[in-house]
Amino acid sequence: MLSTIQPPRYLSRFPLRRRTKCRSLHILSSAEPLTKTSLTDQSQILSIRELLLSRQLSAVELTHSYLDRLKQTEPHIKCFLHVSDSGKVLKQAQEIDDKIKRNEEVGPLAGVPVAIKDNICTADMPSTGGSHILEGYRPPFDATSVKRLKDLGAIVVGKTNLDEFGMGSTTEASAFKVTANPWDLSRVPGGSSGGSAASVSARQCAVSLGSDTGGSVRQPASFCGVVGLKPTYGRVSRFGLMAYASSLDVIGCFGSTVADTGILLHAISGHDSLDATSSKREVPDFTTQFTSASSLKSRPLEGLRVGLIRETVDAGVDSGVKSTIQGAAAHLEQLGCILKEVSLPSFSLGLPAYYILASSESSSNLSRYDGVRYGNQASSDELNALYEESRAKGFGSEVKMRILMGTYALSAGYYDAYYKRAQQVRTIIRKSFKAALVENDILISPAAPSAAYKIGEKKNDPLAMYAGDIMTVNVNLAGLPALVLPCGFVEGGAVGLPVGLQMIGAAFDEEKLLKVGHIFEQTLQGYNFIPPLISNGAFA
Amino acid sequence: MASKLFRTIRIHPFLLCPTALFSSRNVALYCTMKSSQTQTATQEKHQPPKVKVPQHALKKTVDKITRDYEAIIGIETHVQLSTLTKAFCSCPYNYGSQPNTSICPICMGLPGALPVLNSRVIEFAVKLGLALNCKLSLNSKFDRKQYFYPDLPKGYQISQFDIPIATGGYVDLDIPLEFGGGHRKFGITRVHMEEDAGKLLHSGNGAQVDLNRAGVPLLEIVSEPDMRTGIEAAEYAAELQRVVRYLGISNGNMQEGSLRCDVNVSIRPIGQSEFGTKVEVKNLNSFSSINRAIDFEISRQAQLHSQGQGNQIVQETRLWEEGAQKTVTMRKKEGLSDYRYFPEPDLPEVILTQEYVDSVHNSLPELPEMKRRRYENMGLSMQDVLFLANDMNVAEYFDATLSSGADLKLAANWIMGDIAAYMKNEKLSINEIKLTPQELGELIASIKGGTISGKIGKEILFELLAKGGTVKGLIEEKDLVQINDPVEIGKMIDKVISENPKQLEQYRGGKTKLQGFFAGQVMKLSKGKANPGLLNKILLEKLNAKS
Question: What are the residue boundaries of the Asn/Gln amidotransferase domain, all occurrences included (chain B) (predicted)?
């Protein structure tokens, strides 16, 4: 089936190869003890490295293959707001090839094509945050995470679409375009990092960076059938990330495997002198634990205490999602985990607290977009009119609504009733998660109450859209790390829609999440999380 | 509250003709000497107001009116800190550089840029908090103060709201004698850290923004409403300037805007306990404008009150117009502005340990108030005390001179007299003169010990000031040792007397004034080296002996 993709020339070699041939909608099979053993199954980044260093493939060939697929698929999926100049990208690839030829050291991410969410600053290309107010804006600096990726040899292929400044759950709130879900082009990819999730799902890049303020990495990962990793607050520098809600924002990772997100996270983690909220904690090398599944014991997670959050499989959650998550929980039990239901009574408070805090902070963070120093300026002779018009024209309605809500919540006379109270709720939530993570090694839940829904379905019902964030916002309020990985499918679209399992860990314990997630992924049988539209070359 | 603390009676509770008063000793009030810092605000000269001073009679009636009222004055002071880099980024700040040459993504508020606190700001804030006898908050935080203005790049100012780093202190000062003298203690409500905004430059083609100053660290000092007169307010500001200069945390220059004072003035009938409506006055670029603006404002408000128009005093911001010597309405306040303060999420809390505070406390220099009390206890007059302690470098010079063994009074006189005059003429600071305190001590000792005469001492002083060198070296080089030998002096007197028989005759004829003539001639002959006391004694003997 892969040979049907013509061109690219190199796809027969990379990276869509999968050993197991199976339909997407398979039920968890316990029949054959199949394990995933090829390097590609474990990590695209590691297999790229092996192919390059063993000289089976050149970086230029590799880059061509990705660029070709990007060119074919992009008109249908619309992941990117800006695609890097192919000449520049190929030149970078050539430099890597030259280094390898000269037997020089290349970075651990050499030749790895990455996409960057457009609210993360990149020095040499536009960074709009998905907003008209920054149309054409080119930052004079790279975000710290981007700089670190470039320093390690990664190649930035473009800037991905998002809900304006990260405010939204569908990517429909982008000022520029609507991104489609590669599993069903009539559906949303989730958001706000919809472009980053869809681009990995569509194999337009190997890995991508997103940002997660209330679930903006995890929910689109779930909708697109890819792995999404939201690190602990402070693990990754926010310098260069356009602030939405500073106390909640983190830069997160997308990959097609758990190992890829772990390797990507490792590359961007660690203290940054340019971000006072970045942690000085040492970053453990969680890139070495991605052992091949064939070397695993029969019950590799023996004794691991897993708590399924009861409130996340309650009413209001799609029944298909519920049963998929229960299937995933059963799989964890098979791997040796001790499964327990835990109740977090404060869970439902997270959503209103989140929307008050995030809106409050955003109303402040977005004040800088006034049209005075950069971005689009409305022409006016009078100062207030200049502000009003620049902002009225520059911001979309979702952003305006959140600025208004936040301004209200911070106003004299309302501060105590809203902002302060939400902070108190946040403290309660943080404590309850901390306690639950003392009794459990990890907590699990769905990443979203449903699979991907139709474009336009919730566009005029913001409350329904906000309600979709219930699974993820608490984790941001508590500042914890969480990993979302595809664990099954529900009916929908032509081939079914992927469902993501969310694993929540203790602060700064990404290592455990990645280990558990990797084992779960490598032992999960019978699923193929490459969208058929991509693997069967429908756009070729 | 503060009135209880006053140790002396105020002589002029409300000075309504401050200009007249100021024209006399204005310079002496704040600072008579140039400090080591360039171009100081304290060295201000009184500029004659361009309006006519009100007629004497009118002035008297106003004076009378104001005596029925008490003024309540509080001051908000912004001190620009002299850190090498800005508060939250690594841009340097230099006053007067080309617009927008000292900016970066952080102080421009570019998307994605984050503030990182310069730890020196904390250190300076702790220093000032301690120097102002405040209680320090070991756990404080930054907040965002939100408003839109083109000079505010982020749309909010990083400041401190409900938990300032220092609270509840006071400042001690002495009012110069010419303004009634006396000690004062004024309360300090709070000291907090914040960042400065940029500047708007208005030109023909509209307004432009210069962000060089954006993000420069400030300390805002809020006083208790303890001051009652313009002089007290000006002295309070001058004391803050001395303190920040002693601490080395700011150049305190008012003209450059490194020290900015906004004053709040209200009046109430004497005996009333409620405060009147307060008016804020801005644009005060010198101590004398603080003084004059306040006194103008007091008389304006008192006149309105006395004419039954007290309700026309409204809460507003007024601007001091230096040229017209009056305050004018800048903007009326429409209720309280809502700055929507909330905790700055980009910066961690500011946590101080007691050990840190103690270590800063131990490193504080001797502060102006301590210096003044020490000098006072040494026996110097208050006028000398105020002069010497005004500038830390002068005080240090004085202290060093004393520690080289010099006589207290003589050292003070030399520094305040000839040395100060020289510095003023040559526009030098005390750190720039070539005379070391040790040599000044030597010079004083040489005169006192009779090695050289006072006159010669003065001559070589100017040589030492300009060229340096040692007293001993100069005396030797120029053969300036005083002649104390009566025989030698006698011989010179004889020579002069014999060469001037006419004058001798006149002297003996009763024109005894001619003694001066003879003394001068002898001194000339001795090249100024003859001991003048001895000379006069022997001269008198010889002139009178043969009569």
Answer: 396-543
